[in-house]
Design a protein that fits this description.
Helix content: 25-40%
Number of strands: 21
Strand order of the largest sheet: 2-3-6-7-11-10-9-8
Number of helices: 11
Largest sheet: 8 strands, antiparallel
């Protein structure tokens, strides 16, 4: 016989309620009542949104929060399991709900075109029934083989929008199915997919903050959480573009433009992805530093490393080569931490330029896109008093403001770039 104490009963009730099925479509109605009920203050106590406690704040400002499914399968949208959902707030009030019904970074791939179209049709029918109006269709081309389809339901109070896209590089692959809900502020639904930077270079220095303890950093760069998928490039670009005023762009659209695969990538692939993206967003991509540009660079660096290793009686590196191809990542994976640091710091000219780039661009309010082995992040500040840089990662609130010694940062730098708005003057 099992006896429940009052405390055990309360605990059981808590976990039962928290684990109960939550269909986010229940928040959607033609009157937009959720915009009156859900606030930043009550999001995580489950009082309005049943799965609210599963949303994690993306920044200390609490202006957006993200739900990530992982192994949880009880949060749905019209009975479809939701891999990701984001709620955004402005001045504490709900401004937008964004739901991924499917995205290829977090979901099992959909390679059956008929099944994908059937899913869209079923969702559209249910949304038409829910809102009681006929949808308006539009489309935007991202390239020769990529089109974003949009379907919007407009009521006097809210706009619900369904976006979906697929790619066909030899075979069909579904990219994403995204649903959003926001207040109807008049006019048609915003159908921007790759809206260009709204701010000019002249607008950006106002975002630079200086603290008494020496931190100089760019404030106001929105956080984007890439989750477990290898979307560091798209997530970084989404953050930069949101900072430049292009609010509607998502990492899923950027991943489609860039051809991003669902795993980490090397510095050359990262740079090529940035090149494919930059022009579409009204920005200039500037390359300031690349660690290894060609085979000769690589061999020279290994020779230099081995010379310093021998002086310090440390193991040398042997270049890994297969099928007449030099395997850079595997070779560098065997490096000694102290020797690599000595080797990089021996490049006094490169280190001086690195520090100058950090100072110059941060003072202008322009974040630096920072490539390190297998990953991309943002440098958003510096502190000359403790000789550190301030950087920000794409993994949520705990990673929005981090510091590292400048020499350690230089040691791991594989690439340094900026995406800068093309517009030079603010519109008047």
């Amino acid at each position: 016989m099992i006896r429940f104490t009052a405390a055990m009963a309360l605990l059981f009730a808590f976990f039962t309620a928290d684990g109960a099925n939550c269909d986010l479509a229940d928040l959607f109605d033609r009157d937009g009542t959720i915009f009156e009920k859900l606030t930043a203050a009550n999001l995580r106590n489950n009082s309005v949104l049943k799965a609210g406690s599963s949303f994690q704040w993306l920044s200390a400002k609490r202006d957006s929060a993200r739900y990530q499914a992982l192994k949880r399968k009880d949060v749905t949208f019209l009975s479809e399991v939701v891999p990701e959902a984001i709620v955004r707030f402005r001045n504490g009030a709900l401004s937008r709900i964004y739901i991924a019904v499917y995205n290829r970074g977090d979901s099992e791939p959909i390679t059956d075109e008929e099944a994908f179209e059937a899913k869209i049709g079923e969702l559209s029918g249910k949304l038409s029934e829910k809102f009681g109006v006929e949808p308006q269709d539009s489309r935007k081309r991202l390239g020769s083989k990529a089109t974003v389809m949009m379907r919007a339901w407009n009521t006097p109070r809210v706009v619900c929008q369904l976006r979906w896209s697929s790619s066909s590089r030899g075979s069909f692959l579904a990219e994403y199915i995204l649903v959003s809900l926001e207040k109807n502020l008049g006019g048609n639904a915003d159908d921007a997919v790759v809206a260009k930077a709204a701010k000019s270079v002249a607008d950006l220095p106002a975002n630079v903050k200086r603290k008494p303890e020496g931190d100089v950093y760019i404030d106001g760069i929105p956080m984007v959480d890439q989750g477990p998928k290898g979307y560091c490039v798209p997530a970084v670009v989404e953050r930069v573009m949101k900072y430049y005023g292009s609010d509607d762009v998502t990492q899923h659209t950027i991943a489609q433009i860039a051809g991003t695969r669902n795993y980490g990538t090397n510095v050359n692939e990262m740079y090529n992805s940035l090149k494919r993206i930059s022009n579409r967003f009204g920005c200039r991509l500037n390359e300031h530093y690349t660690f290894i540009k060609d085979i000769r660079d690589f061999r020279r660096f290994i020779d230099k490393y081995n010379g310093i290793a021998r002086k310090n009686k440390a193991p040398t590196l042997k270049i890994v080569e297969r099928n007449n191809t030099l395997i850079v990542d595997e070779t560098m994976g065997k490096q000694n931490v102290e020797i690599i640091k000595k080797t990089r710091m021996d490049d006094k000219s490169g280190y001086k330029k690195f520090n100058k780039y950090v100072h110059d661009f941060i003072d202008k309010g322009i974040p630096l896109i920072w490539c390190i082995p297998g990953h991309m992040r943002l440098i958003i500040g510096y502190n000359d008093r403790d000789s550190s840089i301030v950087f920000s990662d794409t993994w949520g609130a705990k990673f929005e403001f981090q510091k590292m010694k400048k020499d350690d940062a230089w040691t791991m730098t594989y690439g340094l770039y900026t995406l800068e708005p093309s517009r030079r003057q603010t519109r008047r």
